[in-house]
Amino acid sequence: MHEIEQSLAKPEGKQLEFKRDLSSPKPILRTLIAFANTAGGQLFIGVADNGDIMGVEDPLAEEERLTSLIADSIAPRLLPSIELLTVKEKTLLRVEVHLSSSRPHYLKAKGPEQGVLVRIGSSNRQADTQLISELQRQATGETFDTMPMPHLSIEDLDLDAMQQQFGEHRQLDEQRLITLKLLVRDQGRLVPSKGAILLFGKQRTLHFDDAWIQCGRFRGIDKVDIFDQTDLHDHLPSAVDSIALFLKKHAFKSAEFAGMKRTDHWSIPLTILREAIINALVHSDYSQRGSPIRIAFYDDRIEIESPGMLMPGMTIEDMKRGISMIRNPVIARVFRELKLIEQWGSGVQRIFAEAAMQGLPEPQIKEIANRLRFIIFLAQTQSVTQSVTQSSDLPESLLGLLRALGQGPLSSGELRERLGLKHRTNFRNHYLVPALEAGLIELTLPDKPNSRFQQYRLTAKGQSNG
Asked: pTM for the complete prediction?
C-alpha cells in the first residue's frame, strides 16, 4: 500500500492520472488509449485532480461498467489490469495500462485516422497521420532511417564528404556501406537508406524538407527580438561543429595562461551543449513534417528543440537515468563510428553531471506538442552587448561592418551596399544599433543624428576589433 500512497501523492503526469468518477467516460477512455500508445500508466478512479481521496460509491458496478466501456469503445482490443483498492477507508479503482504491442489503439467512434491518442506530459493529444505511421513502425520494430529509398542510387550520396568524415584510413567500399546500412537492398538492387540520405544526401532537404537546423540569437529571454540567425544545411555529422560555431560567435571568451599554455574559457557550457546537440541530431524524428531542429540562444539559456516525442515506453526520468532507446540506428551507428557518441545512453547523464559539476542550474527536458526541448541554463545572464564587447570573436555581421568602415567613414546607404543588405530595418537592428551600443562605431555628426550627411566611423575600440 505504501507504493499506492506514493503514487497518489504525486501530481498527474505522463504515466499518472486521477478521475473523480465515471460520470464522463470519454476522457477516461482517451487516457487509457494514450497510455497504451505511449508509455503505459496508471489511472485512479475515485481521486480528485488535486489528489484528494473521494472513493467510489459502488466499486463492483463501476468496475463492470468500465470493463464494458473499454471493450465496446477501444480498438484494437485493450486489456488493462483493473483492481479495487482501499485507501484511507475508501475504495478506489486502479486501472493499469502497459505499453501495448498492438498499438496504435483508437476510439472506435472516431476511427483509426481520427481516434488515436498519445500522452504528452499530463495531457492527451490526437495523433496526426505522420505520428500514427511512426507508432505503427515502432510497434513492428521497423525504423524510419533503415527504410530504402528505391528511386535513388549511390550517386545521390556525397561520397567525398562521407570519406572525409571517416578519414583516409577507413575506406568506404560497397561492403562497408552495406554494413553501416547506408546502402540497403530493395528489389534486387542496392539503394540508399533514408538514414544515408539524412546523413550524407546531396539533396537531403529535397527529400526531407525539414531535415535542417535553424539557429537564432535573441535579445532578452523571449523570441520578441531576434539579433542574428542562420540556417544550416550541413551533413549531419558536420552540423555539430557548425552549430557550436554559431553559439561561440555570440558568446564571449576569456583566456588564462599557465606558463606558455593558453586555456580559453567560454561564457556558455560548450561541453554540455555539444552533448545536447548530438542528442537532438541522432534522436530527432525525421519522419515528422512541420519544422526543423531549432537552436535558440537567449540571454539566460540555450534551448535545443527537435521534432518527435520520446520513444514508446520512455519517460524524461528514464532519460535522466541513462536509459536509451535508439530511434535512428543508422544515424546513431555512423555517429558512434565517428566518435561523436561514446557509450549508448550516457550523453544525457553526462549533461546533468557536467551541469552539477559546473554549478549550473539543472537542465530541463520538456515534451512540447510533438517536439522535445532541452534547456541549458547559463551561469550568468549574457546580453548581446556583452558578447559583442567582451569577445575577441565578434559576430560575423559586426566584423563585416567594421571591415567596411576600415577605409573611412560611410553613410548608412553606402554601408548597406557594401554589405549587400537591402532591408533597412534589419540593417539597423542587427548591425548599426549593436555596433553603436558596443562602442565600436560612432556618428560623424553626433549633434545631428538624422542629417542626410550623417556617416559612421570606427572608434578606437572598433579599430582594435576590426
From this structure: 0.79
